Amino acid sequence: MNNFSADSGMLFLLITTIICCNFGCSQGCLDDEKTALQQIGQSLGYGYEYFYPGSSDDCCRWDGIYCSPTTSHVIRIFYDYIKEDEDPGFPVFLDMSLFSQLKELQELHLRGNNIGELTNPEEICKLVHLQWLDLSANSIEDAVPPCWGNMPSLRTLNLSKNRFQGNLTSFLANLSKIESIDVSYNLFEGLLSFSIFANHSKLSHLDLSYNYQLEVETENPTWHPRFQVQHLLLAGCNLNRQSGQIIPRFLSIQYNLQTLDLSSNLLVGSFPTWLLHNVSSVLSLRSNSFVGQFPQGHQKKSTLSKLDISNNHFDGHLPINIDLFLPQLKGFNASSNQFSGNIPPSVVKLKYVESLDLSSNLLSGVVPVGLTYNSPLWYLNLSNNSLDGELLPENCSMPNLTWLLLHHNIFVGNIPACLSKSLSLKLIDVRHNHLSGTILSLPVFMQLGALLLGENQFRGPPPQQLCQMQMLQFLDFSNNNFSGNIPSCLNNNSVWRKKFQANSWVPVDFTTKGNSYLYQGIPLTLMTGIDFSANILAGFIPDEIGELAELRSLNLSQNHLTGHIPKSFKNLTNLESLDLSHNNLTGQIPPEIVQIDFLTTFFVAFNNLSGRIPSNEHFSTIFSESSFEGNQELCGEPLQRKCSGNDNEDDGRKENPKENAEEGLVDKPLFFYSFVFVSYAVGFWSVIAPLCIGANWRRKYFATIDGWIEYLLTR
Ligand SMILES: *[C@@H]1O[C@H](CO)[C@@H](O)[C@H](O)[C@H]1NC(C)=O
Ligand SMILES: *[C@@H]1O[C@H](CO)[C@@H](O)[C@H](O)[C@H]1NC(C)=O
Ligand SMILES: *[C@@H]1O[C@H](CO)[C@@H](O)[C@H](O)[C@H]1NC(C)=O
Ligand SMILES: *[C@@H]1O[C@H](CO)[C@@H](O)[C@H](O)[C@H]1NC(C)=O
Ligand SMILES: *[C@@H]1O[C@H](CO)[C@@H](O)[C@H](O)[C@H]1NC(C)=O
Ligand SMILES: *[C@@H]1O[C@H](CO)[C@@H](O)[C@H](O)[C@H]1NC(C)=O
Ligand SMILES: *[C@@H]1O[C@H](CO)[C@@H](O)[C@H](O)[C@H]1NC(C)=O
Ligand SMILES: *[C@@H]1O[C@H](CO)[C@@H](O)[C@H](O)[C@H]1NC(C)=O
Ligand SMILES: *[C@@H]1O[C@H](CO)[C@@H](O)[C@H](O)[C@H]1NC(C)=O
Ligand SMILES: *[C@@H]1O[C@H](CO)[C@@H](O)[C@H](O)[C@H]1NC(C)=O
Ligand SMILES: *[C@@H]1O[C@H](CO)[C@@H](O)[C@H](O)[C@H]1NC(C)=O
Ligand SMILES: *[C@@H]1O[C@H](CO)[C@@H](O)[C@H](O)[C@H]1NC(C)=O
């Protein structure tokens, strides 16, 4: 049977070949290559469409497969992010000998397919034509086989974001014709001397970043580069540990350097002004130990479009003429230094600047008018300084503004009306200032994911416009003087109600359950919260809050709320944290609340609740006395107070007609809550996201998240 099909395959092939040679028709794919491709597909668990697209028998027409028009051999495979599993499942074992059957293969792209281990990895060394190998964004845990370092045609190698280990020196030393190497985010270790690259004359892209066990040495032994590199990324790889933590000297004879990333290396010295001229486009010195002042005085013009000097020990004033020597800057990050004085007018004159981060310095004074007037700013972070005056100058107009972070300053006044010109805002964080006044007319920000007003002195009712902002995910109104009622119309919100799956992301660090988690680019539905705590809100908790089924955290504590805990709360099926403590709530704790599966934080202490604490194994074990204390008439586990027979009768369902009337009257706006910090810290997603996100979606997520972050930071 097997022989028969093999024979008929050969025959078919022969006939096809003859016909095609004679009549010039396009040739189909070779049978043994097709079989290999099918096996590759099976071991990767790819979705059906990759194998039988339109039921084509000709594998050359399959998605992602390219054959040579002359020989019909498969020459390129593009299988990036094609895993269609609903469930991530276990990492895949991939047998590389399957590929060695594709003898003419030139490009192999297997990015992002949950590959955990390669079996027979040395087999791909048989592919003498292989020019491009991309195994990035998998979780391959292997030493690199020695023969990979001798692949004769290899030009582009991407092993980024895996768990490859071992000795980079022996691996890279012989690849002297290579053009692009990316081995970032792996577990390579040992000492790597740049002298091994001396004869790699075509090298134009080299990324060794974030191999924390690696030690990269550029000074000893002395060597002379025969390459002119364009993109050099040496972040987080213990650069020049043994030669005084200095900036590599060979950079002064690199004439095409476009990107240079030296971040996270403990480099020392004063501001390397020369790099502003030696690098043409993107320069990052982030997270080192540079000291001293930003160069003042007249400098030669630089063409840099992005400059990141954040998280060093620079001090003094920002230069008064930065606009003259860095006129092209689009992104400038000077965060986390000790810059002092005012935001200088020179920053204002950077007329292309779209992303400006001056946060966590010692800056004082007001936000200059020019910075916000008719400005291309897309990201503005001035948080954690000592800036004062109004949040933004009176006639601000920033049509593209998306991220606005002004928290932890000493701003006064109200939310500026001119923000109505910034309707793309996704995040407003003005927590911890001295803002005050009533918020009567807040612009309706249709894209807004997080509105964080906590720790100010705002008063009056929460603005009704909240109910029109469909994308809201986090609301922090805590620690203000908001009064009136919690708006019942909050149930208009689509994200909280899960009317649709939101797909824009807000990076936030959200405190729930007493812990602060770092979220890297949250799909809006994943983490949601409302924090109205520590205000003077009164009246009932609207029943409608129970419709916000996507809510994960609700904090209404320390207000003057009255009435019952709405029974509708049983519909808050995703709630993880509920804090209603320090109010004047009455009646029983609705027994339905024990049905909320994920509830791990629950506080109703210091109210006037009564009756028996509902229980099931979940409820009575995980919550302690402190969740319930300070309620005179509450009884049962975990409180000491035993229930008498009567306690069961008041089940909290007897609505008090007087209170109901009150509720009708106080159908005013509302308050919500949550704690949010914005942050780009990376750790979280790699762990949690794969667990929470549906699979189809996950593929796209991983495909886009890097792009998105890149976009976020670079636009
Ligand atoms: C290597 O792959 C990673 C992840 O897939 C990607 O972000 C990076 O841009 C690639 N490197 C190069 C040089 O293309
Ligand atoms: C590099 O190539 C040379 C010559 O082809 C060979 O002798 C040597 O063993 C190779 N080195 C490594 C580390 O593979
Ligand atoms: C790595 O390999 C090179 C060349 O084969 C060798 O000289 C060096 O000692 C090795 N380094 C480590 C840390 O094993
Ligand atoms: C580079 O090439 C030169 C001359 O061809 C040779 O002397 C030198 O040893 C080579 N360096 C390395 C690191 O292979
Ligand atoms: C880099 O800067 C140094 C010091 O200013 C200078 O000598 C060298 O010519 C510059 N190199 C390039 C490629 O611009
Ligand atoms: C600026 O740098 C700080 C510290 O390195 C970092 O946390 C922040 O995300 C950066 N901002 C931008 C916009 O890249
Ligand atoms: C604020 O800045 C100070 C130093 O200027 C730093 O120590 C602190 O961590 C920063 N706080 C936040 C919330 O970023
Ligand atoms: C806002 O962004 C758009 C599209 O990127 C751009 O065309 C426009 O010039 C920007 N607006 C300002 C004021 O820079
Ligand atoms: C608005 O901004 C322009 C341009 O900077 C400035 O000339 C004007 O005085 C400002 N108007 C007000 C009312 O601040
Ligand atoms: C709770 O209600 C009692 C009686 O109605 C009242 O005396 C007390 O001030 C209220 N407490 C709060 C925090 O509103
Ligand atoms: C809970 O939701 C269900 C269906 O979504 C609805 O029928 C029910 O009335 C809700 N319960 C309460 C108490 O709101
Ligand atoms: C803004 O700056 C603060 C303080 O440096 C930092 O913690 C935060 O991550 C920055 N926000 C964003 C969105 O980059």
From TrEMBL:
Gene3D superfamilies: Ribonuclease Inhibitor. Keywords: Cell membrane, Glycoprotein, Leucine-rich repeat, Membrane, Receptor, Repeat, Signal, Transmembrane, Transmembrane helix. Residues 1-28 form the signal peptide. The chain crosses the membrane at residues 670-693. One of its GO terms (cellular component) is plasma membrane. It is found in: Cell membrane. Its main location: membrane. Residues 639-660 are annotated as: Disordered. Coiled coil: none annotated. InterPro entries: Leu-rich_rpt, Leu-rich_rpt_typical-subtyp, LRR_dom_sf, RLP_Defense_Trigger. Residues 651-660 have a biased composition (Basic and acidic residues). PROSITE patterns: LRR. This is LRR receptor-like serine/threonine-protein kinase ERECTA. It comes from Durio zibethinus. The lineage of its organism: Eukaryota, Viridiplantae, Streptophyta, Embryophyta, Tracheophyta.
